[in-house]
Automatic annotation (TrEMBL):
Localization: Membrane
PROSITE patterns in the record: GOLD (PS50866)
Superkingdom of origin organism: Eukaryota
Name of the featured protein: GOLD domain-containing protein
Membrane topology: Single-pass type I membrane protein
Entry GO CC: membrane
Residues passing through the membrane, by range: 174-196
InterPro entries tied to this protein: Emp24-like, GOLD_dom
Signal peptide: 1-21
Annotated SMART domains: EMP24_GP25L
Keyword entries, A-Z: Developmental protein, Membrane, Signal, Transmembrane, Transmembrane helix
GOLD domain sequence ranges: 31-116
Family affiliation: Belongs to the EMP24/GP25L family.
Length: 207
């Protein structure tokens, strides 16, 4: 009974590493992009399929926020792609429809399956090489998933610390700027009072 419960729990956790299938319609002469935030040195692989349309061409490209292209292919129909993230950033996968002026465009359907990180590992090959039993393989998947989650939390904590440091630095700068502004206003007010006093004395309005 305990073994069955353990297998059920493992199966539940392993649902998180399933392939994510996405389908969407691509209008003629438009582009649609899928965006995701990726850690540095993360492998991403995927498969795509685009419905055929006479005279129409669909390209795809993967780029980061600085518009660096990591992967690109023109006139696609069905195939695979892969790339490795260079730094922590938001990456986007764009499908671009191109239709000549003399062709009446039609909507095309794009289907894509994406894996990233631990999802890209071939556990069947690992099981054969290490001669792992089914339960041991599930434990291996769970271990890799746990490591990935720990790394994500560590990265989130690091980013939180960086954001906190940035906020504290910004608060200090705002404080110093406010003090500087107050000093400037006090100096200007003092100069104005002294100037007016000399002016009124010169006009013999006050002694």
């Amino acid at each position: 009974m305990k073994i069955n419960v353990g297998i059920s729990i493992l199966s539940l956790f392993c649902l998180f590493v399933n392939v994510r299938a996405i389908r969407f319609n691509l209008q003629p002469n438009t582009q649609k992009c899928l965006r995701d935030e990726l850690n540095a040195n993360m492998l991403v692989v995927g498969e795509y399929e685009v419905t055929a349309a006479p005279g129409q061409i669909v390209d795809y490209e993967v780029r980061d926020t600085k518009q660096h292209i990591l992967s690109k292919k023109d006139d696609i129909s069905r195939g695979k792609f892969s790339f490795t993230s260079e730094i922590f950033d938001v990456y986007e996968l764009c499908f671009i429809s191109k239709v000549p002026n003399n062709v009446r465009g039609v909507v095309q359907e794009v289907a894509i399956n994406i894996k990233k990180g631990v999802e890209t590992k071939s556990y069947e090959g690992i099981a054969e090489a290490a001669k792992l039993k089914p339960l041991e393989l599930e434990l291996k998947k769970l271990e890799d998933l746990s490591d990935a989650i720990v790394q994500d939390f560590a990265l989130m904590r690091k980013r939180e610390e960086e954001m906190r440091d940035t906020n504290e630095s910004t608060n200090n700068r705002v404080l110093f700027f406010s003090i500087f502004g107050m000093c400037c206003l006090l100096g200007l007010a003092t100069w104005q009072v002294l100037y007016l006093r000399r002016f009124f004395i010169a006009k013999k309005l006050i002694e």
